[in-house]
Amino acid sequence: MIKELFLKNIIFILITFLLLSISSCVKNIATGERQLIILSEAEENNIGAKEHPKIIKNFGGIYKDPKLEKYISSIGNKIAQNSDMPDIRWNFTILDSPIVNAFALPGGYVYVTRGLLSLANDEAEIASVIGHEIAHVTARHAAQRHAKSTLSNIGLDILSIVVGQPIVTNLASIGVQGVLSAFSRSEELEADRLGIKYIIKSKYDPEGSLRFLTRLNKLTKILTKHQQNAISSIFSTHPKTIDRIDISKESVPE
Fold first, then answer.
1. Residues 206-211: what's their mean pLDDT?
2. Where does the chain have alpha helices with state H?
3. CA distance 126 to 124
4. How many Å apart are CA 73 and CA 126, to the nearest integer?
5. Which of 30, 45, 146, 180 measures 20 to 30 Å from 254, CA to CA?
6. How far apart are CA 187 and CA 171, in angstroms?
């Protein structure tokens, strides 16, 4: 009786996942692939707007240099206009942090730190970083991760009730986290490919990405462990730098 109940609940979980997955799949305009998305674009915009002040507060505030702000915004807007989402309200912010970092929020909020800008040697290298972050937005990676995380947690909650054994639930959690982490790394490589496409359309030297990543890779090898923390924070969830260099080489036209 217990075994039959267990099997029925497992079947119910699988059917629920399947129905939610099918109903939530949409075609992404940037990648051309179908994605699991349960957030609307309006909801993504709201998330970005809500989190924007928190990002500024937690990363040292906005770096006050009007000329540099205008310069970075001009680069960002140029690339955004050549992306797959030119019509959203893009926002480019320089954070007053020495940590080498760059990231994006849903809705077109893109951030680079002054630490990262100090590492770039030319405009094409800056453009490659911004293009990569724009690609995260156009590929709707945050919304996709949100959907996967939400559905995974629903499944684990139901499974913990059905099984009633913490050790099984914990093992399931580890498996889910591993899958999500691996997927995140594939997203980073996808953002590299899309970003290079955008900077080529924007008439920037596509080898800027290769130069920046190669220098970063060399720099991390000669720094102390403490110094590496300031550099590698941007890549804590990214693929290995050497893998990203390979993607840059492949994406640059002959």
1. 88
2. 2-24, 41-58, 66-81, 114-119, 123-138, 141-163, 166-201, 207-222, 225-232, 241-251
3. 5
4. 11
5. 30
6. 25
